[in-house]
Amino acid sequence: MTAKKNPLTKILSQYSFIIVFIAIFIVYALTSSGLTWNGVMNIFRHSAVIGIIGIGMGMVCITGEIDLSVGSMLAMISGFAVVIFNITGSVIVTLLFCLAFGAVCGLVNGFLVGYIKMPAFIVTLATMLIYRSFAQYFCQVIPKDLCGGGSSVYRMINTHASYQSFYNFGNGKLATVPIVGIMLIIVVAIFTYITTSTKFGKKVYAIGSNEKGASMNGINVDLMKMTVFIITGVLVGVGAFLWIAMNASSDPATTGKSYEMYAIASAVLGGISMSGGRGKCLGILFGAMSYTVIDKIIVALKMDSLINDAIKGIILIIVILIQLAGPRIRELLAARK
């Protein structure tokens, strides 16, 4: 007879990402010289872009795939979006461009993975190189007045009537909460609903749990995988829009650098299984914020910034080890009972 699982234990195991975030936040509170409300709200602001991209990465990981191109995609979309804004002066046109161009970039990945059956690791590694290269190359060949006059950086022209409102949107607050942070929460809420309460979401989990079984049950696996990559591209487009709203520029060499790793780490810290089929989109919000807080802890402790990624990498390995060890430990305990 199987022992009934304690309800509290079940809740803790399903929402462990909240506990991880609280633990990291407590460390931050103890190490910071003075924790203020604005400082707490800045966690939302600094988590917005990587959190939104992380949602897309989480969806891809749930299907058992991976997307290494999101950082380079962010650089290319944000750079070209600056050019579109400089040409049109329209925030709406710039947003639509980001969404559409992101969808096209995701479609390239999704078609090659879903229908051509190429390994996602190889496809997105290749497009990671392609997208970054395009971002840097076109920054050199596009007329400088369209790039905002920068020699190697895309800059928004601040003479457009809509420039200030666009910049205020990226750096403004609503009742002390950063607007970009609110955007992150809205995106998380939408995709939490999609993955938990729609047929589409159930199909995504089914593919990650058992791709062959999902196919036998009538799920179009190829189309679903392509769709998930397109969604990821669209979310990168949203991130690119917020990026230029916050920074009014995009550096093709550094924008989105290592963001593919940060997005994966946010997903994994949030409880998404790299083997597919398990995890919650809500967890990615806390995973992204956890990584932001880790950055702040490193700054508070006055550690060398060069060690930043090493610490994040170590944390990522530890979390994955815990993911792998957890089920095995539960099996051993169940066997002894």
Structural overview:
The protein has 337 residues and is mainly α. The protein has one domain: ABC transporter involved in vitamin B12 uptake, BtuC (Orthogonal Bundle), CATH 1.10.3470. It contains 14 helices and four strands. The strands form two sheets. The chain has a two-stranded antiparallel sheet. Strands 2-3 form a two-stranded antiparallel ribbon. It is globular and about 70 Å long. The chain starts with 6 loop residues before the first helix and ends with a helix. The relative contact order is 0.19. The mean pLDDT is 89.
Radius of gyration: 21 Å
CATH architecture: Orthogonal Bundle
- Give the neighbour order of strands across the main sheet: 1-4
**Text of the CATH class:** Mainly Alpha
CATH fold description: ABC transporter involved in vitamin B12 uptake, BtuC
The total strand number stands at: 4
Q: Give the rounded overall mean pLDDT.
A: 89
Q: Sheet with the most strands?
A: 2 strands, antiparallel
Low-pLDDT residue spans: none
Counting helices, strands and paired strands, the structural category is mainly alpha
SSE string, helix = H, strand = E?
A: HHHHHHEHEEHHHHEHHH
